[in-house]
């Protein structure tokens, strides 16, 4: 998933719980790929199968670990740290943020899948890790449906489809018309092969019959720079970055890939307004826990997440980052995962993006 600007959490008072940070390096992460033994799993089942209402009322009684599959400052880290800080204050319990970047989220996801299902480990996941990865990696060490229970959807990161100022393209209709009239004459940039910024344009091209040539870059910033320099002609960038350049007159905004129009580019229509009512969202995030996590713990975390979205400071920060809140039930995470896996999977296979 593309990165967002860094957020620096305010220091917490020593007298209250806090969200803290721990970076785990590559060698440590690789060791986490070792699975739990059957004995350990059996003990966990015995311990939690009979959790009572009284025990649930005491949850949590020790620090909660929030695992983030990106380095500090990445988009997932920004979102996760905001939630962790809120949760620590509400539960009066420390929330430890562990950054475990690498392998497109596989290292972090595999690690969490093998942790005790006790309610004290949560993963910030999302569409890339839950719906894209199973189709991109044939021997992936985790399976979303088998290894995770949903806690809640978190946020959707809208995208902004833009064109270069020298292209003469001022609308999506104009882009489609040009691409059809001159097949493969237009190049589109992305943050990398198989990235959300790649797949969203491929999906749009498939739905419209456009023929575009993909030019992957090492990161979204490099891709957007290429559009501004007219080295490529089109890109779908994350909204909070693309809108800045659009308002500066350096790119032309064509459409918002999101649930509603964006305040930063209020005159730009959504894809739904332009006739693509069921276009999938390529940037949603969710919270998941190891499979078998006690329902009482899931329910408590879900309830706190719903309250998270009502917090004035959280609302202001999400608006600043141009992220759409997604309060939901725990079950919705699995529903969205299955739906988007069925939607994006065929495209990923068609593009030959599967890796051994």
From TrEMBL:
InterPro entries cross-referenced by the UniProt entry: BUG (IPR005064), Bug_dom1 (IPR042100)
Domain of life: Bacteria
Matching CDD domains: PBP2_Bug_TTT
Matching SUPFAM superfamilies: Periplasmic binding protein-like II
PANTHER family for the chain: BLR1237 PROTEIN, TRICARBOXYLATE-BINDING PROTEIN
Protein family per UniProt: Belongs to the UPF0065 (bug) family.
Name of this protein: Tripartite tricarboxylate transporter substrate binding protein
Organism name: Achromobacter insolitus
